[in-house]
Amino acid sequence: MPMEQRADTVLSPYRSFSRTEWAALRDDAPMTLSGEEVQRLRSLHDRLDMKEVEEIYLPLSRLLSMYVAATQRLFRAQQSFLKTVDIKMPYIIGVAGSVAVGKSTTARVLQALLARWPNVPKVDLITTDGFLYPNAVLDREGLMEKKGFPESYDLPALLTFLTDVKAGRRPVRAPIYSHLVYDVVPNQWVEVDRPDILIVEGLNVLQTGRLPKDGKAIPFVSDFFDFSVYIDADEDVLRGWYVNRFLTLRGTAFRDPKSYFHRYSNLSDEEATETATSIWSRINLVNLNENIVPTRQRADLILKKQANHQVAEVSLRRL
Predict the structure, then answer these.
(1) Crossing angle of helices 58-82/103-114, nearest 10°?
(2) Looking at the domain assignment, is residue 7 inside a domain?
(3) pTM of the complete model
């Protein structure tokens, strides 16, 4: 092995596993999901099957259950030291990655698996889409072409939500986003009521920003995470998945007259491919390179996917 490669491996904050190595870490963890449930959890364009759940997500849920239990023990130790009776804070898991990489599927599978561990924890899931500014605000501010970029989110509202969750307030409400109308739904909420685990899924949940020179505290979304997962794939693979998803939606969701993208439902294959590629290059690729990929190394765990949607390598941050 060349000296540079050896040094790189030694200095890396991550320990990397091949798919086979990672799958072996399932140990004797039982499969608690049926084939039907796995299909329901899968997003439209993802190719998730039982083998993927068994070899990738079951070992991950086993690791997370251990982390949650260890955090609970630490909490009780602190309680004993301080002689307090504080409410146990929820364990928060962040799931980040590009558009079309499969964040929603990963988040739902983890929620389902974690909720079925022996202690039967209450596991809630929210997406940061609900914290996007409404389209009317984005239009007014000239940000519609930057929807999904850090500046398109109501960050103070998201930080307040996470602060309230961590403080044990109940219930805490998160806005609901509709992918059909491509907007936040007015006066509709999902309630989070003191879960044992909360999964927060979103494009830029590992984003930081510029630090203040005066050293004053500026909270980031990731400051509230106990564990974070970044789902990774090569740029050309992501573009292909995005275009394929667009073509699928053209014949399904886009056909609904209420759909924000209804105007694309009658495009030919060639026109739809050209339109999707343009949107990807103009918006999603820029966001990926400027805001999402730079946060990858902040994650506790990186799942690297291949073109067939299967995870080929897992990198776990060393403790």
Answers:
(1) 60
(2) no
(3) 0.93
